[in-house]
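Lab manual, section 2.4: Encoding a predicted structure.

Procedure: take the sequence of the chain (93 residues), apply the prediction step described in section 2.3, and record the output as structure tokens. A sample record is shown.
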Amino acid sequence: MIKLLASIFIKNKDDFTNPQVRRHYGILCGAVGIILNILLFCGKLFAGFIAKSVAITADAFNNLSDAGSSIISMIGFKMAGKKPDAEHPFGHK
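Recorded output:
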């Protein structure tokens, strides 16, 4: 699935030596993780309410926290792609 999405959203998807391409892969995977975890959250929350199950509802919120982890991962990839500056002469890697 990632190969298909990469061919749609990433230019020069096979040039792994390019830091921009690697950064775009990280952001793409983070975005896919967010979308899937939010969909899982909604489905499990609905199922938990219908079944009146605390366990399924708790698992739904676990998926929501996983989406938060993906957001943090995407922020990290964006920060790592910043150019060097006076305080970070070797970049933000």
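Check your result against the sample. The CA atoms of residues 83 and 91 lie 5 Å apart.
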